[in-house]
Amino acid sequence: MKKVLLLLTAITVLSSCLNADDLPNYKYEFLKIDEATTPGSFTLGQKDTIKIKYTLLNSCYSFDNIYYEHQDSTRIVAVRSYVDLDSNCAEVITQKEYDIIVNVAQEEDYIFKFYKGVDIDGENIFEEVIIPVN
Asked: For residue 35, what is the enclosing H or E element?
Protein backbone atom coordinates (compact mmCIF):
# COMPACT_ATOMS: atom_id res chain seq x y z
CA MET A 1 0.00 0.00 0.00
CA LYS A 2 2.85 2.36 0.86
CA LYS A 3 4.47 1.67 -2.53
CA VAL A 4 1.24 2.51 -4.39
CA LEU A 5 0.86 5.74 -2.41
CA LEU A 6 4.48 6.66 -3.09
CA LEU A 7 4.03 5.94 -6.82
CA LEU A 8 0.88 8.08 -7.03
CA THR A 9 2.62 10.92 -5.19
CA ALA A 10 5.61 10.74 -7.55
CA ILE A 11 3.33 10.81 -10.61
CA THR A 12 1.44 13.83 -9.23
CA VAL A 13 4.64 15.74 -8.47
CA LEU A 14 6.21 14.99 -11.84
CA SER A 15 3.07 15.81 -13.82
CA SER A 16 2.69 19.14 -12.01
CA CYS A 17 6.15 20.10 -13.29
CA LEU A 18 5.07 19.73 -16.91
CA ASN A 19 4.19 22.96 -18.63
CA ALA A 20 1.53 22.47 -21.30
CA ASP A 21 2.81 25.57 -23.11
CA ASP A 22 6.09 23.79 -23.83
CA LEU A 23 4.43 20.89 -25.61
CA PRO A 24 4.15 21.06 -29.39
CA ASN A 25 0.69 21.85 -30.68
CA TYR A 26 0.06 19.94 -33.89
CA LYS A 27 -2.27 17.53 -35.59
CA TYR A 28 -2.15 15.05 -38.44
CA GLU A 29 -4.54 15.47 -41.34
CA PHE A 30 -5.25 13.53 -44.50
CA LEU A 31 -4.97 15.59 -47.67
CA LYS A 32 -6.94 14.81 -50.78
CA ILE A 33 -5.08 13.51 -53.78
CA ASP A 34 -5.53 16.04 -56.58
CA GLU A 35 -4.39 13.74 -59.36
CA ALA A 36 -3.12 10.20 -59.76
CA THR A 37 -1.26 9.07 -62.88
CA THR A 38 -1.41 5.30 -63.21
CA PRO A 39 -0.08 2.91 -65.88
CA GLY A 40 -2.55 1.23 -68.23
CA SER A 41 -1.52 -2.17 -66.86
CA PHE A 42 1.00 -3.88 -64.60
CA THR A 43 3.33 -6.76 -65.47
CA LEU A 44 3.50 -9.56 -62.91
CA GLY A 45 6.86 -9.68 -61.12
CA GLN A 46 7.88 -6.16 -62.17
CA LYS A 47 7.95 -2.80 -60.39
CA ASP A 48 5.88 0.13 -61.62
CA THR A 49 5.23 3.69 -60.52
CA ILE A 50 2.09 5.61 -59.68
CA LYS A 51 2.50 9.38 -59.52
CA ILE A 52 0.25 11.38 -57.25
CA LYS A 53 -0.19 15.13 -56.79
CA TYR A 54 -1.46 16.73 -53.59
CA THR A 55 -1.70 20.26 -52.22
CA LEU A 56 -0.30 21.68 -48.98
CA LEU A 57 -2.94 24.24 -47.93
CA ASN A 58 -0.58 26.77 -46.26
CA SER A 59 2.90 27.00 -44.74
CA CYS A 60 1.80 25.18 -41.56
CA TYR A 61 1.25 21.98 -43.56
CA SER A 62 4.10 19.62 -44.33
CA PHE A 63 4.29 16.11 -45.77
CA ASP A 64 4.38 13.34 -43.16
CA ASN A 65 3.92 10.12 -45.13
CA ILE A 66 1.78 8.14 -47.54
CA TYR A 67 -1.05 6.14 -46.04
CA TYR A 68 -1.08 2.89 -48.02
CA GLU A 69 -3.39 0.11 -46.91
CA HIS A 70 -4.03 -3.09 -48.81
CA GLN A 71 -7.05 -5.34 -48.44
CA ASP A 72 -6.95 -8.30 -50.83
CA SER A 73 -6.56 -6.71 -54.30
CA THR A 74 -7.62 -3.22 -53.13
CA ARG A 75 -5.13 -0.49 -52.18
CA ILE A 76 -6.25 2.62 -50.30
CA VAL A 77 -3.94 5.60 -50.80
CA ALA A 78 -3.92 8.98 -49.02
CA VAL A 79 -1.41 11.68 -48.09
CA ARG A 80 -0.91 12.27 -44.36
CA SER A 81 0.27 15.74 -43.42
CA TYR A 82 1.65 17.28 -40.24
CA VAL A 83 -0.06 20.57 -39.33
CA ASP A 84 1.71 22.98 -36.97
CA LEU A 85 -1.00 24.74 -34.94
CA ASP A 86 1.31 27.20 -33.13
CA SER A 87 2.85 28.99 -36.12
CA ASN A 88 1.69 32.02 -38.01
CA CYS A 89 0.89 30.42 -41.34
CA ALA A 90 1.64 32.08 -44.64
CA GLU A 91 -1.20 31.62 -47.10
CA VAL A 92 0.99 29.81 -49.60
CA ILE A 93 -0.62 26.94 -51.47
CA THR A 94 1.96 24.44 -52.70
CA GLN A 95 1.33 21.50 -55.00
CA LYS A 96 3.66 18.55 -54.50
CA GLU A 97 4.22 15.21 -56.22
CA TYR A 98 5.06 11.80 -54.85
CA ASP A 99 5.98 8.55 -56.63
CA ILE A 100 4.59 5.31 -55.24
CA ILE A 101 6.57 2.25 -56.28
CA VAL A 102 4.36 -0.84 -56.70
CA ASN A 103 5.87 -4.34 -56.64
CA VAL A 104 3.42 -6.30 -58.77
CA ALA A 105 3.05 -9.57 -56.91
CA GLN A 106 -0.53 -10.66 -57.57
CA GLU A 107 -2.20 -11.98 -60.68
CA GLU A 108 -5.54 -10.30 -59.97
CA ASP A 109 -6.27 -6.75 -61.11
CA TYR A 110 -5.24 -4.06 -58.65
CA ILE A 111 -7.96 -1.72 -57.40
CA PHE A 112 -6.60 1.60 -56.17
CA LYS A 113 -8.78 3.94 -54.11
CA PHE A 114 -7.31 7.43 -53.99
CA TYR A 115 -8.55 9.64 -51.14
CA LYS A 116 -10.51 12.68 -52.38
CA GLY A 117 -11.76 14.16 -49.09
CA VAL A 118 -15.06 13.87 -47.24
CA ASP A 119 -18.65 14.53 -48.29
CA ILE A 120 -21.20 16.65 -46.41
CA ASP A 121 -22.10 13.63 -44.24
CA GLY A 122 -18.47 13.18 -43.16
CA GLU A 123 -17.99 10.03 -45.27
CA ASN A 124 -14.68 9.49 -47.06
CA ILE A 125 -14.69 9.93 -50.85
CA PHE A 126 -12.38 7.87 -53.06
CA GLU A 127 -11.54 7.81 -56.75
CA GLU A 128 -11.30 4.17 -57.82
CA VAL A 129 -8.88 3.04 -60.54
CA ILE A 130 -8.57 -0.57 -61.70
CA ILE A 131 -5.21 -1.61 -63.15
CA PRO A 132 -5.10 -4.99 -64.91
CA VAL A 133 -2.12 -7.33 -64.53
CA ASN A 134 -0.51 -8.90 -67.61
From this structure: strand 33-37
